[in-house]
Design goal:
The protein is mainly alpha-helical and 155 residues long. The chain has 2 domains: 46 residues, no CATH class; 96 residues, no CATH class. The longest helix has 57 residues.
Length: 155
């Protein structure tokens, strides 16, 4: 007689065993009256549970759940849109700073040539302005990226 398979009987009654295990349990049940009787009890229990009415989900719970899911999806879409808008704004600001630097250099160079005067202080102040703008935009992007990562851990 093979070893008892009592731990597999509930799974066998529920039809959750596969291939070799199911065959092993069936073979054992043909040889062991004790396990066969216990398997019959498990089958009766599974049949009785199958005849029980399924619980009904209250409509208010379904409505609240759908509402929460829709809110979360809207928040996620808004965060994605905000991130894209921020990226565009930073890229646009840096592009405009570079273009305006080139234009200022072109204009001040032509103006200096016409006036025969150096415009060094103006260019230095503009350079400081551009660098401060880049640093500010970079810091804002870093802080918003950090916040986004933290929000990702929460939700």
């Amino acid at each position: 007689m093979s070893a008892h398979v009592t731990s597999l009987l509930p799974l066998a009654a529920a039809g959750a065993l596969e291939g070799d295990e199911a065959a092993r349990v069936e073979q054992h049940l043909r040889e062991c009256a004790t396990c066969a009787a216990e398997a019959a009890e498990w089958r009766r229990l599974v049949d009785a549970l199958g005849r029980m009415p399924a619980p009904r989900t209250p409509p208010a719970l379904v409505a609240r759940t759908l509402e929460v899911v829709e809110e979360r999806l809207a928040e996620r879409a808004e965060r994605a849109w905000n991130g894209a808008a921020l990226g565009f704004a930073v890229a646009f600001a840096w592009t405009m700073a570079v273009v305006s630097w080139l234009l200022l250099d072109l204009l001040t160079g032509a103006l200096a040539a016409r006036l025969d005067r150096p415009v060094g202080p103006t260019a230095a102040w503009y350079a400081a302005y551009v660098v401060a703008g880049w640093l500010t935009a970079g810091a804002a992007a870093a802080l918003l990226g950090r916040r986004r990562r933290e929000e990702g851990r929460i939700t």
